[in-house]
Write a structure and sequence with these properties.
heterodimer, A: about 110 residues, mainly beta, four-stranded antiparallel β-sheet, about 0% helix, about 50% strand, B: about 110 residues, six-stranded mixed β-sheet, 12 strands, globular
Chain lengths: ~110, ~110
Amino acid sequence: NAGVMQNPRHLVRRRGQEARLRCSPVKGHSHVYWYRQLPEEGLKFMVYLQKENIIDESGMPKERFSAEFPKEGPSILRIQQVVRGDSAAYFCASSPGSFYEQYFGPGTRLTVT
Amino acid sequence: GDSVTQMEGPVTLSEEAFLTINCTYTATGYPSLFWYVQYPGEGLQLLLKATKADDKGSNKGFEATYRKETTSFHLEKGSVQVSDSAVYFCALSYSGAGSYQLTFGKGTKLSVIP
């Protein structure tokens, strides 16, 4: 069974550009979570999505960040007009339900120059 | 708010050495505690967990005991192998609503040399 796939694994963007991070959950999982790990910090919860719905976005920055999980295709974390402070590792996880173990992807490392 | 503090890495050990990675937490309630492991190039995997005070989680020779009095959940292994080289994350969450929100420590990188 394929695990959670994230791409790209490394992404370099200049300040002001847009970053799109993709996450393909484990087959059959309809719950997706995004976490961010800033330098020298632990992973922090950002958003929880089910197919076509945002369940909890309490950890998302209010501006420039958005997430979606369409009926078909991967979940997308979108960061508009990136700034240097967005440089971090972004991890996606999936589960078959909200009270189940989360399976993590290898992460996308975003560098903003 | 809730937080998890892990010992600073990297940690380098010889094969068959004893491993301890310290983890303490600050929480307003009574969380469940977890250890995750990330092998090179892979995603984080759940290693073990404990859901209440004095519970011991164990897996693959690793173990950790939930100590409410010291708010700690230290990871131990009696004899490490080269294949244990990875980054280890301590984490917590609460049961019930919002249980999907995991709070992680910074991670501790372990390197085991032959």
